[in-house]
């Protein structure tokens, strides 16, 4: 709740207060203060830590809890403290009656650690000490008088202000020292008068020491030095008021509003005819301000007719002659009423009981309110605040009597509000209690519910609080809850609160939806029932990792294939749904030089570069093969994954010719070696594999006479005929490897 404050003058508070009301589930009894309001007084000169008073709250019977106290409002500047254990209130800082004369504290009691509190109001009056002397506006002043002025003429008005209150602020005036007995002073008004003529005296100037003394004990005093000079000019006319002595003003005018124009005429000329205006009495609270030159009287504070309806100001008109002549007038100001007071009910809560099904016109209760305004503004009219069922009652607008207008039904309406009229109003609540019969069945808020829960809920988790209302009271309105359909052991309902809870772990992959009915019944003998259909959708959680169909795959590919040639497609399945079940494929390891790539969505493994069987030795686990580790990941958070191994064999293509270990072989033999002797052996290698690498040797030229034979498998050259150096000194054989 947000609470604002407004004083009697209409000024709102600078800030609002936030009030938090906690509604407790169980009835807890707080500690109760012995009094709802305490009143103490303390002098403003009390030293710090002075005891002001003690408050006491009594704990409930048989309670073992300790009562503690704290100040919860009314002390924004921290001037007070309270003993939390004994309730003793002390001063914490120096006080000042002139700054704040009344302090209203709200003290709160708490019983142990209970969340229940009680409060009381503590009113502290800061009594005044005479610590401020009267103060003149100036320490010295001068005035000129005429030597012809008669005795009793007012020549000067001394004004001193004292900030204290009561007798401490009441000022009385006296002439402390004077050179002549020609002057006297009114002790209350401070008006300096002539006691005799000064025409015959040669003295032209008089010095008066005027003392302003308050009525405190001990009293305080201040001095004003007044110099009075004679003037031979004659001031023989006093001012005369020409403005009315009556005025009126509305109570809701702003500060500074012009209330009255005071006018006084003086037929003298020059300074003798210059008139100034002053308020002598009736303005002790400084409600008004009078311009001493123009005579304009304005408000200095907000007015409130309910506080003060009439002001009587004694006004003096004083000319500037020497001595000054004056005239006084009593100005009566009447404050006119404005409808600014709200009617207030004598009770904020009225309670009454009436039987349902009674005849119209049955008397219920009489309410009463008061209004501090006057005249028509204080006349009240009563009416029922519009609301559900308000047409079933009639309110006498003058007397405030409430009667029924129709037969009542307790379940239709229980609370009615009454407000005042016309332009300002007040409301009060009227609680009508109607005796109940079991004529209503419990009703669920909705006939069907559909909720979604995650499959990772712990057993015993509450998923929904069902609520059924029964407009009856007592046992007739107490609702019991139950389930009437099979929930496969997954759910149960609290029979009192209607809270549905899980009774086992849920698994969307096993069952993704449950549908069952809940029943609400009251405790009467007739057991009227109400049902609602519950649909519980199990939301997927990423609790299943993708799983390859095989943990080990084998595939082969011919060397020399162009890039992006498909080799094999792998599959991984994920039992989850949505993003949790979407699988993405990647190569985790074994893919040196990015030889292969995989389609992340379809799982198709393909070549990324041209393969060469003869250059795969650095990737081999076995001859001419690649072993890749594939990763299948889902898109859940966090992501789950699994791996599989793929062995890719690169198949050989006969793309390499045999290569001899040397392009030429030179052999020297003696002509006498016998037939069958081993001459030499040639050797060639083929980078291909298998049959493509099996080499056959043959002599294609240079052996026309058949001197040599060549083993086609081993490449061994042997002598077949006798050599004759004189016949042939050199043979050149051309051998082919295929």
Automatic annotation (TrEMBL):
Major location (coarse): membrane
Molecular function terms, GO-annotated: calcium ion binding
InterPro entries: Cadherin-like_dom (IPR002126), Cadherin-like_sf (IPR015919), Cadherin_CS (IPR020894)
Cadherin domain sequence ranges: 34-136, 137-241, 249-345, 346-444, 445-548, 549-660, 661-738
CDD domains in the cross-refs: Cadherin_repeat
GO biological process annotation, one example: homophilic cell adhesion via plasma membrane adhesion molecules
Localization annotation: Membrane
Keywords of this entry: Calcium, Cell adhesion, Disulfide bond, EGF-like domain, Glycoprotein, Membrane, Repeat, Signal, Transmembrane, Transmembrane helix
Domain of life: Eukaryota
Pfam families: Cadherin
GO cellular component annotations of the record: plasma membrane
Protein name: PCD23 protein
């Amino acid at each position: 709740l947000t609470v604002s404050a407004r004083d009697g003058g209409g000024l709102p508070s600078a800030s609002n207060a936030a009030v938090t009301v906690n509604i407790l589930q169980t009835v807890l009894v707080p500690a109760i203060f012995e009094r709802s309001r305490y009143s103490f007084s303390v002098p403003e000169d009390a030293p710090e830590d002075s005891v002001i008073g003690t408050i006491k709250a009594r704990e409930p019977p048989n309670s073992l809890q300790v009562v503690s106290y704290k100040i919860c409002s009314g002390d924004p500047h921290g001037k007070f403290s309270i003993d939390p254990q004994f309730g003793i209130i002390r001063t914490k800082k120096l006080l000042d009656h002139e700054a704040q004369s009344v302090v209203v504290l709200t003290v709160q009691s708490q019983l142990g650690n209970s969340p229940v509190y009680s409060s009381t109001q503590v009113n502290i009056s800061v009594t005044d000490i005479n610590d401020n002397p009267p103060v003149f506006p100036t320490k010295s002043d001068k005035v000129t008088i005429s030597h012809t002025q008669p005795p009793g003429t007012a020549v000067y008005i001394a004004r001193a202000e004292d900030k204290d209150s009561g007798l401490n602020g009441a000022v009385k005036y006296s002439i402390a020292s004077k050179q002549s007995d020609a002057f006297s002073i009114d002790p209350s008004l401070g008006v300096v008068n002539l006691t005799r003529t000064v025409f015959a005296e040669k003295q032209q100037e008089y010095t008066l020491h005027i003392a302003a003394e308050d009525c405190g004990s001990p009293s305080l005093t201040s001095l004003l030095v007044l110099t009075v000079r004679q003037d031979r000019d004659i001031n023989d006319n006093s001012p005369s008021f020409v403005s009315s002595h009556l005025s009126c003003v509305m109570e809701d005018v702003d500060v500074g509003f012009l209330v009255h124009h005071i006018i006084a005429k003086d037929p003298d000329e020059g300074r003798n005819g210059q008139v100034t205006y002053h308020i002598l009495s009736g303005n002790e609270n400084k409600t008004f301000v009078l311009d001493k030159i123009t005579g304009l009287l304005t408000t200095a504070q907000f007015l409130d007719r309910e506080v003060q309806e009439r002001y009587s100001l004694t006004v003096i008109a004083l000319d500037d002659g020497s001595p000054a002549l004056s005239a006084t007038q009593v100005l009566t100001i009447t404050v006119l009423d404005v409808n600014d007071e709200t009617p207030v009910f004598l009770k904020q809560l009225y309670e009454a009981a009436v039987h349902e099904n009674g005849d119209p016109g049955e008397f219920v209760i009489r309410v009463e309110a008061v209004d501090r305004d006057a005249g028509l503004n204080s006349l009240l009219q009563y009416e029922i605040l519009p609301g559900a069922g308000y047409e079933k009652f009639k309110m006498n607008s003058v007397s405030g009597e409430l009667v029924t207008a129709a037969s009542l039904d307790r379940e239709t309406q229980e609370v009615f509000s009454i407000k005042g009229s016309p332009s300002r109003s007040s409301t009060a609540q009227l609680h009508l209690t109607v005796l109940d019969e079991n004529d209503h069945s419990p009703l669920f808020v909705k006939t069907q519910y559909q909720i979604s829960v995650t499959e990772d809920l712990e057993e015993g988790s509450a998923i929904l609080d069902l609520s059924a209302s029964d407009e009856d009271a007592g046992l007739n309105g107490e609702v019991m809850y139950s389930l009437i359909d099979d929930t496969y052991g997954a759910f149960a309902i609290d029979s009192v609160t209607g809270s549905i809870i899980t009774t086992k772990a849920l698994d969307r992959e096993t069952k993704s939806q449950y549908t069952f009915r809940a029943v609400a019944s009251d405790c009467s003998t007739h057991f009227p029932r109400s049902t609602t259909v519950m649909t519980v959708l199990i939301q997927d959680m990423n609790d299943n990792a993708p799983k390859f169909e095989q943990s080990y795959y084998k595939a082969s590919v011919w060397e020399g294939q162009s890039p992006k040639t498909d080799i094999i497609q792998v599959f991984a399945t994920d039992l989850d749904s949505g993003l949790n079940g979407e699988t993405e494929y990647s190569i985790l390891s074994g893919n040196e030089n990015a030889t292969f790539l995989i389609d992340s969505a379809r799982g198709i493994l393909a070549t990324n570069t041209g393969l060469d069987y003869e250059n795969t030795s650095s990737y081999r686990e076995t001859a001419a093969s690649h072993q890749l580790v594939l990763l299948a990941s889902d898109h859940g958070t966090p992501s789950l994954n699994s791996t599989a191994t793929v062995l890719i064999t690169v198949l050989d293509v006969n793309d390499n010719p045999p290569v001899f270990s040397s392009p030429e072989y030179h052999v020297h033999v003696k002509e006498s070696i016998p037939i069958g002797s081993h001459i030499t052996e040639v050797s060639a290698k083929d980078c291909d594999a298998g049959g493509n690498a099996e080499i056959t040797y043959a002599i294609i030229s240079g052996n026309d006479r058949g001197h040599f034979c060549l083993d086609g498998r081993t490449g061994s050259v042997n002598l077949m005929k006798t050599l004759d150096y004189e016949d042939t000194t050199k043979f050149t054989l051309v051998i082919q490897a295929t």
